[in-house]
Amino acid sequence: MTNEEKVKEMVKQKYGEIALQDKETNSCSCCGSGGCSTEVYNIMSENYDQLEGYNPDADLGLGCGLPTQFAKIKKGDIVIDLGSGAGNDCFVARAETGETGKVIGIDFTPAMIEKARINAEKLGFDNVTFRLGDIEKMPIGGNFADVVVSNCVLNLVPNKPTVFKEIYRVLKTGGHFSISDIVLTGELPQKLQEAAEMYAGCVAGASQKNEYLSFIEQAGFKNITLQKENTITIPYDILENYLSKEDIAAYRAKPPIIRSITVYAEKQDCDCNTGCC
User: Fold this and answer.
1) What interhelical angle do 110-123 and 3-19 show, nearest 10?
2) 274 CB burial (10 A radius; 0-12, 13-18, 19+)
3) In the list 33, 77, 197, 206, which could disulfide-bond 182, CB 3.0-4.6 Å?
4) Which backbone phi and psi does 37 adopt, to 5 degrees?
5) Are 118 and 124 in contact (CB under 8 A)?
6) What CATH number was assigned to the domain covering residues 3-267?
């Protein structure tokens, strides 16, 4: 088994466990708003309550932004959500695309797919479907979707350039994406980089911000725009699981390097510079 395969199996196992918990359980252990925090999974989650289509049963508190709020989804659009979890962003997207559109969630964790399908059935949505699959090789045909969204998922993928190429492939010409993710603007302490919990918690697997944006450009996308950016602070009681007091002091003495970003980009008319002619 390659290192990339080991990482994927670790993430699948962790998120399979999370799928069996509700948001309250996750929040109690992950410090969504500054309370107790013994895990790292949702320290950067944002509040969906104000968005039409929000369904509490589908919200596990695992995102790091509100990509569907910025995704410019229109009535009748076909939308793909990468790493769809329990279906939260899919149901918000469905409120935008309406009954004439279609929303497809892709996730490689069977427990998440099962939970999302149960939620969709409860809501009676026949135009929201969930597919088990790897977003590095999507079970979707080319030139298919109008919009792609994703919330705090690509940082979990070892081969990010491949995912952006896949997004380019499945989007129609003229389509676009809005993706929320975690990026870095400096180097994490080595012990944080090596911690499996920090990887599954969307921190240790994050790319440098400039590198991340270059992956998007190299895939052929145009009009790359940062729609939102926030600083993420890891609570002290999480840091002390991995670092000494001296290491924590040194880490916190530097400017914050963990960012949540929401980035937008378009697949414009094809030309030979993008390798698609």
Assistant:
1) 40
2) middle
3) 206
4) -160, 105
5) no
6) 3.40.50.150
